[in-house]
Amino acid sequence: MNGIHDMGGMTCFGPIEREENEPVFRADWERRIFALNLGKRGGFGPADMARHRHERSNPGFYINALYYERWLASVEMALKEFGVASDEEIASGEATTPWTPPGPPPNAAAIEKRVRRGSPATRDTGRQYPRFDVGDHVRARNINPSGHTRLPRYIRGHVGTVTRLHGTHVFPDTNAHSKGENPQPLYNVRFDATELWGSEALSCDRLYIDLWEDYLEPAGRQDAKDY
Amino acid sequence: MSEQSRRTFIGGLAAGSAASVGCHAAEEEAHDHHNAASSPYLERRRSPAETAALDERVRKLENLMIQKGLVSKEGLEKIIDIYENDLGPMNGAQVVARAWVDSDYKTRLLDDATAAIGELGFGGIQGEHMVVVENTPSVHNVVVCTLCSCYPWPVLGLPPNWYKSAAYRSRVVIDPRGVIREFGLELDDSVEVRVWDSSAEIRYLVLPERPERTDELNEEQLAELVTRDAMIGVLKIPERSA
Fold first, then answer.
1. What does CATH list as the number for A136-226?
2. B188 inside 8 A of chain A by CB
């Protein structure tokens, strides 16, 4: 979706506010909501779906909320959308309707394992043979899906050069919507700053971004010495 | 690692080089907005009453999620312990220092960062697919996630608020030199700036340049010089005084 989260290239947000010796969490509730989100049992969909929950929030809220206020809203939204808790239960903090989890919640050992192992996005299924190679010119397709996408607006329609093949990765645009992982080649693509921002950008500057094959169409091949 | 020692890795003063000439007339216009009035959209701290309300709301949610069997107290405490104490820029600093002293390691790091970082015991959530990009006298790399807040947790910990802010996410792709200058680093116009937008599950770590006058330092001492901001790429590692 063309949401407020897709902010690359906007210049209206003023200076970058920094804090010396910033703690990991600025308040106890930030610490708690971070842990609640990461420590909850499975069954609430992949990270792509969680990201889309943030994107679907009210744009005024999104832009004005503290970072972890968005996480709080996202966890509450997940509980409601997966039918685990009602608005009333969330407001009161007391469970009044039955919901039987399929097993015990993650304990400390399970958390340790989850954090240290991670959850790779690569797959040995799906499209294993990349359509593009390093050095190929590609154009980012001009798509404007109503759902989740990781193709930012500032890239769409522009021509870049493939610099790296990352292997076969889960495709967020379908995965966020329970429409399958649709694993496909993921590429790193380099764009000239002048291609993205016009002739006033510096000709020596570049933007590198990871793009799935379904985001790309061929745009010829450049001289191999250029990459 | 103590909070104090964790913090020493995060700090790092501006390492602005000697004045260099702006390479482009348009560039000066491009960063006029640095002097713009504070935006109404900037993240702000909450009042004590608002913080108390958020505390209460999260407390209720935690209670509910425990009752529903979604989380365990010990699981939650484990997460907080890991992210407040185990993971942070001190891990990335070890990776950088190793690359500075061991050229074979550096080769492996630039070739397969996930495996090379794993050699030092770091990996897991938000570090499953790592790529390390090297700064040189002629190339400066800087990392962002314009769409959300993607960041290499195992080697840098959780991101600072500025990294997640609308101001940084929006502007570093269109005006990287202006943003970097705002952090205190003036890049010469001969330097190629490479911005990495973390749009997929690949996570980027910048390998900063080793400062001058560090020949006598061992790996551990070198690691102490490495700052978080240099590994994101908004600064260089401060030069040591002669």
1. 2.30.30.50
2. no
Active-site residue, B145 included:
yes
Contact assignment for B197 to A152 by CB distance below 8 Å: yes
Are the Cβ atoms of B193 and A28 closer than 8 angstroms?
Answer: no
Q: Which stretches of chain A drop beneath a pLDDT of 70? A: 221-227
Specify the pTM.
0.90
Contacts of A160 (CB under 8 A, 6+ apart): A137, A138, A139, A140, A189, A190, A191, A192, A195
CATH number of A28-117, picked from 3.30.360.10, 3.30.460.80, 1.10.472.20, 3.40.50.720: 1.10.472.20
Contact B179 A16 (CB under 8 A): yes
Q: A206: which chain B residues are within 8 Å (Cβ-Cβ)?
A: 192-195
Residue B130 lies in domain:
88-242
CA gap B84, A23 in Å, rounded: 9
Q: Which of B5, B17, B72, B148 is catalytic?
A: B148
Q: Is B42 on the interface with A (CB under 8 A)?
A: yes
Note whether B166 contacts A25, CB cutoff 8 Å.
Answer: no
Which value does ipTM take for this structure?
Answer: 0.95
Interface size A-B, in CB pairs within 8 Å, comes to 309
Instruction: List the CATH number of the domain containing B177.
Output: 3.90.330.10
- Span B175-228, pLDDT tens digits: 999 999 999 999 999 999 999 999 999 999 999 999 999 999 999 999 999 999
What's the gap in Å between the CA of A78 and the closest CA on chain B? 12
Q: Where are the domains of chain A?
A: 28-117, 136-226
